[in-house]
Amino acid sequence: MKNIIQFHIYKGDKYYVAQGIDFPVVTQAKTLDELAKNIKEAVELHLEDQDLSELDLAPNPSILLNMELGSAVYA
Q1: What is the Cα–Cα distance from 39 to 56, expressed in whole angstroms?
Q2: Strand arrangement of the beta sheet that strand 16-21 belongs to
Q3: 72 Cβ partners below 8 Å, 6+ apart?
Q4: CA-to-CA distance for 29 and 71, rounded, in angstroms?
Q5: Domains identified in the chain, total number
Q6: How far is CA 47 from CA 15, 27, 63, in A?
Q7: Is residue 39 part of a domain?
Q8: Within a domain: 50
Q9: Beta strand residue intervals within 15-73, DSSP E
């Protein structure tokens, strides 16, 4: 069973986007702080009334965020 729900975060044109890795949740926000709140809320809503074992999740899984950074610019 998985103890961690992973999200990939990247900057879109206007918003930061969080996309679940092997987890069917996507959310967005203008700031990273808002995005963190949205991710937590979206995960809670998605898992509400779900049998976690059917989703191969351990009780009380953690959320891990991976952020994509733009390429470095050298002078």
Answers
A1: 19
A2: 26-29, 16-21, 2-11, 57-67
A3: none
A4: 22
A5: 1
A6: 25, 15, 13
A7: yes
A8: yes
A9: 16-21, 26-29, 57-67
Task: Give me the torsion for CA of 34, 35, 39, 42, rounded to 10°.
Answer: 70
Q: What is residue 35's three-state secondary structure?
A: helix
pLDDT per position as a tens digit, 13-35: 999 999 999 999 999 999 999 99
Residues 6+ apart with CB under 8 A from 38: 18, 27, 28, 29
For the stretch 45-60, pLDDT in tens is: 999 999 998 888 998 8
**E-strand stretches of 1-75:** 2-11, 16-21, 26-29, 57-67
In a domain, 73, yes or no: no
Domain at 33, CATH number: 3.30.2390.10
